[in-house]
Design goal:
Shape: elongated
CATH class of the largest domain: Alpha Beta
Family: Belongs to the gamma-BBH/TMLD family.
Radius of gyration: 28 Å
Pfam family, one: GBBH-like_N
Cofactor: L-ascorbate; Fe(2+)
Number of domains: 2
GO cellular component, one term: mitochondrion
Organism: Mortierella isabellina
CATH architecture of the largest domain: 4-Layer Sandwich
């Protein structure tokens, strides 16, 4: 390695002026590029500037920390694109003021200085289509860089490292604890509710006033209502000539709602206002538990349901809704997914399958029967009668729900429902996790 003393002296002097106390400062060159290594004695981190990236060797902070010892490479392009200064990122709305297409492909640092709390980089050329006379200087706090230092760090920052809990009937009976409406209306209670909703895909509230508007008020504590052609909210009760099987007194098998939409709602809320009928219990199954059983016991059928799309449609009452999706979807490439998987299961709302190959049709029907048999296993079913004032929130793409048949002449049964998108749930959970997660 050929040390260049003038370069070494120049950078050491510049860092000394900034008040940084480096333990070691080294500079070296190769035939094609110059690189610099700077070690800050306080942060105990090593930074190396190469031809196309800046590398940081992160120290161990805690044994379980997301930033446990590892080296991260930050592309020059990525760094310039994500400069957090007010010229590049609006200070109040936090939105970028340039496009990723504006970054010159051959941009590189003219120099880089490691401070106690971050890295300062002066870039060798302006953005494309920008004619700045001064060379741009960016400062990247170590706290910012650490959030993007590895897949684990990114998942921790976005709270995507939380692990859900699959459940069956016995576990749900043991773990299900109603959250009081008054507690829900505190910030800590809302976090507790959302955390339980993430863990199990379902949570119950008690002592919710039996007022027509309460289901939407409960939902709006989480985020904006998701409207559908049923409106902002809907009434679930037996009516004559109903346009949906849910509005009858018949047995309503396990299903998920609105799978014929391109983007079905993420959460459903149901609030019991009246329930004096004989029958009419609410039933729930954790589809993730059913999927896990199927994956282990029937891997070929599991694979079929991951691959073969099912037709969902609603052709009625002036609507023609249609969408195809596999029964089991693994979100391998979506870090923002809440559970890393979702299920699409709604037999009452399936349309004729778009399958032309008879062998492929048989493959699907065999696999679907296997899954249905698992779903209907009594050991997985959690059943309860929602009393007036009780409210359930559940993940529409995870928890299957249904209802036992009831006698409409024996009393009144009236539930009020509404929907939320998954994005508002994830948004609120991340914000509250930052404050309350241990």
């Amino acid at each position: 390695m050929n040390l260049q003393i003038p370069l070494l002296t120049r950078h050491f002097t510049k860092i000394a002026r900034q008040g940084v106390r480096p333990a070691i400062l080294r500079a070296f060159s190769t035939a094609n590029d110059q690189a610099q290594e700077l070690l800050n004695g306080n942060a105990n981190s090593v930074v190396q500037v190469g031809s196309d990236s800046v590398e940081i060797s992160w120290p161990a902070i805690q044994p379980t920390d997301a930033n446990m010892p590892h080296t991260s490479a930050y592309s020059h392009l990525w760094l310039r694109d994500n400069c957090p200064c007010p010229q590049c990122l609006h200070p109040s709305n936090r939105q970028k003021l340039h496009s990723s297409a504006d970054i010159p492909l051959n941009i590189s640092p003219e120099n880089a200085i490691l401070r106690d709390d971050g890295i300062e980089i002066t870039w060798d050329k302006p953005l494309r289509h920008h004619h700045d006379s001064d060379k741009h200087r960016s400062f990247y706090p170590l706290s910012f860089l650490s959030k993007y230092s590895s897949p684990t760090a990114r998942q921790t920052f976005r709270y995507n490292n939380m692990k859900y809990i699959t459940w069956d009937r016995d576990l749900m009976h043991a773990e299900n604890k109603f959250i009081h409406y008054d507690e829900y209306n505190t910030e800590e209670g809302l976090y507790k509710t959302l955390k339980q909703l993430f863990d199990y895909g379902i949570v119950f509230l008690d002592n919710v006033p039996t007022e027509d508007c309460k289901v939407t008020q409960v939902a709006e504590r989480i985020g904006n209502i998701r409207e559908s052609f049923y409106g902002r909210d809907f009434d679930v009760k037996s009516v004559a000539k109903s346009t949906n099987i849910a509005y009858t007194s018949l047995y309503l098998g396990f299903h998920m709602d609105l799978l014929y939409f391109e983007a079905p709602p993420g959460l459903q809320l149901l609030h019991s206002l009246q329930n004096t009928v004989t029958g009419g219990s609410s039933i729930f199954v954790d589809s993730f538990q059913a999927v896990e059983i199927m994956r282990k016991s029937h891997p070929e059928d599991y694979q079929a349901l991951c691959e073969i799309p099912v037709t969902f449609h609603y052709v009625n009452d002036g609507h023609h809704m249609y969408y195809r999706r596999p029964t089991i979807v693994k979100d391998h490439n979506q870090e923002g997914g809440s559970w890393g998987m979702h299920v699409n299961y709604a037999p009452p709302f399936q349309g004729p399958l778009d399958i032309d190959d008879p062998k492929e049709a048989k493959r699907f029907y065999k696999a679907f029967q296997t899954f249905a048999d698992i779903v209907e296993d009594e050991k997985l079913r959690f059943e309860l009668t929602l009393k007036p004032g009780q409210l359930v929130i559940f993940a529409n793409r995870r928890v299957l729900h249904g209802r036992t048949e009831f006698d409409p002449t024996s009393g009144d049964r009236h539930l009020k429902g509404t929907y939320l998108d998954m994005d508002v749930f994830k948004d609120k959970l991340r914000v509250l996790s930052e404050k309350h997660r241990e």
